[in-house]
Design a protein that fits this description.
This protein has 456 residues and is mainly alpha-helical. It is built from 22 helices and two strands.
């Protein structure tokens, strides 16, 4: 497998070649990320943009992720005293009221982590400028702040697709197969919902960081170029800031490298570059320490467990419920991920090391996430903590599409993907209208509304 990294040079010859370039079917497939972005943007315009952004567009956990932005840039208050006026007076909605504050050392802190807010900072600042020009309230919550935040989610979706495309090309997947995979991951999973509707949740931002980390770390172990290690460290720091549990992605490194000998060579190269390794480690801690500095400023302590009485019960994982229950089963509400397992057959045939390391990594993810005290993750569509790791389902799915050589079998497989996209879109539609309940689905409720849109 050859890790592909191309640099477009801006010279006269390149321009002449571009002018002569003829778009072939293969080259058109390379535009798929932009086509998908257009469709998602069009959907957003015709759903969310028509709403008043004051009425519940940023909901639940997202209120905590987002609150760092007005706290830092407008109120200069990382103890969030403005919460009570915003949440209980100016934008009060009893059905959407959400308390994300906790008390530590007699000081108020945000339960959630700052990484999502850092990702959204440029878009929040753009919203602030537009708000000043338009004369709206500059409170951090009026229309243009959250509208620009939503555009930020679309930007990170594009980063997800561009990064995933590069990663799949590193597995020698063709452009057509990459296009089908991107369509499957965006429209055939709950990622679509968390970009169009609950866009301020952390998932698309974490997904973008993880897919680019995966590409960069694979680049380092296959080329031993220091820049890839440095990029990986910075991205890993961002991953930690968004959701610390997602540092589990480091367990995917053996799979991404591809074989034990190359993994060993990469580890040896680290020993030969102690200053590069040290700089990368310091870069990781420099980024990750932002959260500790916030805690120090807010409470006087560097180390705070903001979730307090919430945590993991590793002795009682709810694996079967996490994967298969009608309440929130991942394979029930995101069956595209189940289809992707078919790619493991080809991994087993061609690279046992990749097969075993990817299997082990995904099993660890399921075990950890199903051990959370609230394994169904409150009000959510399917198993949302898995979204950030969809690259590791996209890879076997793309490999399966690529390796199916018999035309009829290949057409059948692509037809199933198309069918599952339809299933996902209908279920997303049902969830948005509460016909799939946000927490309390049962077998009877599920089959009562299964694929029904006639009553809505």
């Amino acid at each position: 497998m050859i890790f592909q990294h191309r640099i477009l040079t801006n010279n006269a010859a390149t321009m002449r070649n571009f002018m002569k370039y003829k778009f072939t079917p293969t080259s058109w497939f390379s535009l798929t990320p932009w086509f998908i972005l257009f469709v998602v943007f069009w959907t957003t315009i015709n759903t969310t943009f028509k709403k008043d952004y004051k009425s519940g567009i940023i909901e639940s956990d997202a209120k905590g992720y987002y609150a760092y932005l007005p706290a830092f840039f407008i109120y200069h208050d990382l103890n969030f005293r403005f919460f009570y006026k915003i949440e209980r007076v100016d934008y009060y909605n009893p059905t959407l009221y959400y308390q994300f504050l906790r008390v530590e050392n007699n000081k108020t802190i945000n339960k959630y982590y700052v990484g999502t807010a850092i990702c959204l900072t440029p878009f929040f600042l753009a919203g602030h400028v537009i708000t000043l020009i338009k004369g709206y309230p500059t409170d951090g919550y009026s229309y243009y702040y959250t509208m620009m935040t939503h555009l930020g989610a679309l930007f990170y979706l594009l980063l997800v697709m561009l990064g995933l495309r590069k990663l799949l090309r590193a597995y020698d997947v063709g452009e057509k197969e990459i296009s089908i995979t991107l369509l499957a991951i965006v429209f055939g999973t709950n990622l679509f919902y968390y970009v169009v509707t609950e866009f301020a949740m952390s998932h698309v931002y974490s997904f973008a960081a993880i897919v680019w980390f995966s590409y960069a770390i694979k680049g380092y172990f296959l080329s031993f170029k220091s820049k890839y290690l440095f990029y990986s460290a910075l991205l890993l720091g961002l991953i930690a800031l968004i959701r610390p549990v997602n540092l589990l992605v480091v367990l995917a490194i053996p799979f991404l490298v591809g074989n034990p000998s190359q993994l060993l060579l990469g580890l040896k190269s680290l020993v030969k570059k102690p200053w590069v390794l040290l700089a990368s480690i310091l870069s990781f801690f420099l980024i990750a320490s932002i959260q500790f500095l916030i805690y120090k400023h807010s409470t006087g302590n560097f180390f705070v467990y903001s979730y307090q009485d919430e945590g993991f019960n590793f002795l009682n994982p709810q694996i079967s419920d996490f994967l298969f229950s009608y309440r929130k089963g991942m394979f029930v509400y995101t069956p595209m991920l189940f289809l992707s397992i078919s790619g493991f057959v080809f991994l087993f045939r061609e690279n046992r090391f990749q097969f075993y390391t990817l299997t082990a990594f995904l099993l660890v993810l399921v075990y950890v996430f199903s051990s959370w005290h609230m394994w169904f993750y409150g009000g959510s569509f399917s198993q949302r903590p898995m979204i950030e790791f969809y690259a590791f389902f996209a890879i076997p799915l793309a490999i399966a599409i690529q390796k199916l050589r018999r035309p009829n079998l290949r057409k059948l497989f692509i037809g199933i993907i198309a069918l599952l996209i339809i299933v996902s879109q209908i279920q997303t539609y049902q969830y948005r209208r509460a016909h799939i309940h946000w927490s309390d689905m049962t077998k009877e409720k599920y089959w009562d509304v299964f694929m029904r849109v006639d009553r809505f």
